[in-house]
Design brief:
306 residues, 4-stranded parallel beta sheet, 18% strand, Rossmann fold, alpha/beta, globular, 3-stranded mixed beta sheet, 40% helix
Length: 306
């Protein structure tokens, strides 16, 4: 997400600073960017990274699998490190701090009608650690340290900027990679679970709009960012299968697992009331993003590669 956002905002004319924990050269996909080393434990280094910056977009964080395996580390990063970065940004006069959180703070599984007023009841470490980060952002906003904005993303998917990005556990990304590597698609369930899938391109477009938009009409700057359209995992797998015929020239077999659910999957409506209040609309084209993913996988992975 961070790489795609940086690329999109660079194309939109912004000067981009890329923060990274590892030594890194300026990426070929954004040669105009500046790369800054980030030490999350060093306040001086964080303040240096924020110096002269108008907007910080905080996209770093532990994913759901790693959070479950190391809940203390998830809280330390998604919560405490976020709070530390907010303080550094405030000290350096950053105007707006945008935090990429997750729809999964609401519940597990996500079902029914969900908007920004829905209760946040999910106790998974991925959700609770992100919620801690959200609270730090909203505290800073309420006490006017800076303008803090929380974006709760639904199930985003899309091509990364390079293949070693840790994004291949995402269901649509995984299916597109399977299509190239195995020439078949395998689900580990019957695929009946509903998700609000949103393309990364749509997320980038939303963030681009939000960066300089007037959010003063919002009493609390939490915005759900989703497509507003729910599809089952099986339906998305069928769409990947369909696009394979167009992009790759073959139609991979789609295999499903056994239905282990005892209850019928409930409807899901992921609504962004606050996006509507400020007049922002999200248009997500899953076909275009799947096509980009399939082309990326064809260029970066080979059949039967691990």
């Amino acid at each position: 997400m961070g790489g795609r956002l940086a690329h999109a905002l660079g194309l939109a004319g912004y000067n981009i600073l890329l923060g990274t924990r590892q030594k890194s050269d300026i990426p070929s996909w954004l040669p105009s960017a500046k790369v800054l080393p980030i030490n999350w434990e060093d306040m001086d280094a964080l303040e240096h990274a924020c110096h002269g910056v108008q907007t910080v977009i905080h996209a770093a964080g532990m994913n759901a699998q790693d959070s479950a395996a190391e809940p203390t580390a998830a809280l330390a990063f998604n919560g405490l490190a976020t709070s530390r970065l907010i303080d550094a940004a405030a000290n350096e006069g950053v105007a707006r701090f945008i935090y990429l959180s997750t729809a999964h703070v609401y519940s597990s599984p996500l079902d029914g009608l969900i908007d920004e007023d829905s209760p946040t009841t999910n106790l998974h470490p991925y959700a609770t650690s992100h919620l801690a980060g959200e609270h730090a952002v909203l505290f800073a906003d309420r006490y006017r340290k800076l303008e803090g904005v929380v974006l709760r993303l639904s199930n985003a998917f899309g091509a990364p900027t390079y293949k070693d990005v840790n994004c291949w556990m995402l269901i649509v990304n995984d299916l597109c990679r399977q299509a190239v590597v195995k020439r078949e698609l395998t689900l580990h369930s019957d695929g009946s679970q509903l998700r609000d899938f949103i393309s990364i391109e749509a997320v980038c477009d939303s963030v681009n709009q939000i960066i300089e938009d007037d959010l003063s009409d919002l009493s609390e700057k939490v915005l759900n960012v989703g497509s507003g359209i729910s599809k089952s995992i099986y339906e998305m797998a069928q769409l990947v299968q369909e696009r394979c015929s167009v992009i790759l020239g073959y139609n991979p077999e789609l295999n499903t697992g056994v239905n282990t659910k005892t209850n019928k999957t409930k409807d899901l409506i992921y609504r962004s009331t606050n996006m509507e209040k400020i007049g922002l609309k999200v248009f997500s084209d899953p076909r275009a993003e799947i096509d980009l993913l399939l082309e990326f996988c064809r260029e970066n992975f080979t059949e039967d590669s691990e």
